[in-house]
């Protein structure tokens, strides 16, 4: 019983949780969402550029995109954050002031854009090439056909993967604390860690973990919903044809010949 009580006090001390709850809500949750959403938006913009460069028929555009993707996907996230946050600290102070907050967002944006670029590239290349050829036959230029027809279809196909990437960014936002954020800029993990150190109890970290679950678990179910919805929609839009009778009905010449 004593061991069980010690475990409960270590991980589920409701007094310690209640003390840190206002700061988690007002500071930690807000900054986690700001960092994650900002990195995702910037990552989507840069990722789309990288994806279009990666599928370009021009070689000098494809190679930089390939190198960029391999670089930021191959490095550990924490290493990229430290290299950006410490390597450009002086430049950041001249532009943004003493806060490393913007550098953390930039580092996460570079990481996410490499993954999002591959997601966009896969979605665009999954669109039937006949779509582009049909647009060209109608007199559309390559850029206009991609912008109005191919890219929207490609984005729709990869929405579940994009939500998954956002979930990964939310979790990776906890690594920004290595840059030494100001008190008003600390995210969920750093707020929970500081409270755990002060109280000598891990309950604040457990509560911070619950906040991450509140964000990520519903998004995970949203991914599953989108994926199932899109699969069901495609099946309804193009039902499979089976049997000789259906094939014959699709061939009017053969049907007429059989009837005569």
UniProtKB/TrEMBL annotation:
Q: Where in the cell is it found?
A: Cell membrane
Q: Where's the ABC transmembrane type-1 domain?
A: 29-223
Q: Which CDD domains match?
A: TM_PBP2
Keyword set includes Transmembrane helix: yes
What PANTHER family is this protein classified in? GLUTAMINE TRANSPORT SYSTEM PERMEASE PROTEIN GLNP, MEMBRANE COMPONENT OF AMINO ACID ABC TRANSPORTER
The entry sums up its family as follows: Belongs to the binding-protein-dependent transport system permease family. HisMQ subfamily.
Question: Which protein, by its recorded name, is this?
Answer: Amino acid ABC transporter permease
Q: Report membrane topology.
A: Multi-pass membrane protein
Where would you find the membrane-spanning parts of this chain?
A: 33-55, 67-89, 101-120, 204-226
What keywords is this UniProt entry annotated with?
Answer: Amino-acid transport, Cell membrane, Membrane, Transmembrane, Transmembrane helix, Transport
InterPro entries, per this entry?
Answer: AA_ABC_transptr_permease_3TM, ArtM/GltK/GlnP/TcyL/YhdX-like, MetI-like, MetI-like_sf
């Amino acid at each position: 019983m004593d061991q069980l009580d010690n475990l409960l006090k270590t991980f589920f001390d409701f007094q310690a949780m209640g003390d840190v709850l206002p700061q988690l809500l007002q500071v930690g949750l807000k900054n986690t969402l700001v960092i994650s959403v900002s990195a995702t938006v910037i990552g989507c913009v840069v990722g789309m550029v990288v994806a279009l460069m990666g599928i370009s028929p021009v070689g000098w555009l494809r190679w930089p995109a390939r190198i960029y993707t391999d670089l930021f996907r191959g490095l550990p996230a924490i290493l990229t954050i430290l290299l950006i946050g410490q390597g450009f600290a002086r430049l950041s102070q001249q532009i943004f002031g003493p806060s490393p907050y913007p550098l953390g967002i930039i580092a996460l944006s570079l990481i996410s854009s490499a993954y999002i670029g591959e997601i966009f590239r896969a979605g665009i290349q999954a669109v039937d090439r006949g779509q582009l050829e049909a647009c060209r036959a109608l007199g559309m230029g390559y850029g206009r056909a991609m912008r109005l027809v191919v890219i929207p279809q490609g984005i729709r196909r990869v929405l579940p993967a994009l939500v998954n990437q956002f979930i990964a960014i939310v979790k990776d936002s906890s690594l920004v604390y290595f840059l030494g954020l100001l008190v008003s800029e600390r995210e969920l993990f750093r707020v929970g860690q500081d409270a755990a150190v002060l109280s000598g109890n891990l309950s604040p970290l457990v509560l911070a973990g619950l906040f991450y679950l509140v964000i990520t678990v519903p998004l995970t179910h949203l991914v599953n919903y989108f994926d199932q919805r899109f699969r069901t929609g495609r099946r309804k839009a193009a039902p499979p044809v089976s049997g000789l009778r259906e094939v014959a009905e699709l061939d009017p010449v053969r049907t007429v010949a059989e009837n005569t």
